[in-house]
What does this fold into?
Amino acid sequence: MSSIKNIAYSVLDLATVIEGKTPADAFVNSLSLAQAAEKFGYTRFWLAEHHNMVSVASSATSILIGYIAGGTSTIRVGSGGIMLPNHAPLIVAEQFGTLASLYPGRIDLGLGRAPGTDQVTARAIRGDNFNTAHSFPSDVMKLQTFFSADNSESNVRAIPGEGLDIPIWILGSSTDSAMLAAAMGLPYAFASHFAPTHFLEAIRLYRENFRPSVYLDSPYVMACVNVVAGDTDEEADRLVTSLYQLFIGVITGNRKLLQPPVQSMEGIWSMQEEYAVNQMLAYSFIGGPETIKKKMESFLARTGVDEIMATSHLYDHNARVHSYEILAQVLGEMNAITSEGISSL
It folds into this structure.
């Protein structure tokens, strides 16, 4: 599916902790990145809930959302996502109701059903509710009820939260999440940055089965992808080695803080690890501006997505900010050309 349209572009951040630094340093960098993204014209800045991961400091996601929203002015800030089975829906409603009251019109609530961690840690989080992932659809509906003004006569109310317009997104990496988002008439964000296998099938099913709702008239697809942009292809190829090393840790379970880039991955990964990493990172955009543009044009023509959410694991903070600047320039120029084409139709 492809069409002529402007593409929104956004940021997914994990408050990544780099070698030699602390979570406190990661938070300062996240805010700096959000402020830069706002200046570059990004639509939203989302933070992901993960637990028991040494390189990821975004575990207390709603608190970090408040920190980012408080340090910016216009960019939307939200969760990509809150892992709903880890929480009671009422608590999520109250937390995001508080955020939306403090920062009206700027808060998004992306929801996932995965634990955002390993099974042992998930059990530590959920306790006796370990199997609550099966309740994900009903828990989403409970959240919608808590946000509804019609819930004002209920014995259990979300204060704050009730009656507030807080957009809910369904996040996922499978066809199950696609069908749920379609059935509920909600926007859909796919985790193609690390789980590319079912991406094309999932967005096809979502579009084909979408039911218009009070929340959304037509299907809306966001694709999360990896972006490592440099001034040249060679620079990007060097910078991306930090991402490769991070994903070796994901595959092997030997997680480390984000490592500095290297000139070559030879001797760092095995042939099997290289293959597995490249499989997981299939939807990655690595290169200088022209390379990023060509790859992005091909991807958008093939998928017809409505929004790109970029995540960039770069060791050097200035290089990471510059990578997002390059992507914004590329997509901004593409949108300008598209606008000219639409106006001439």
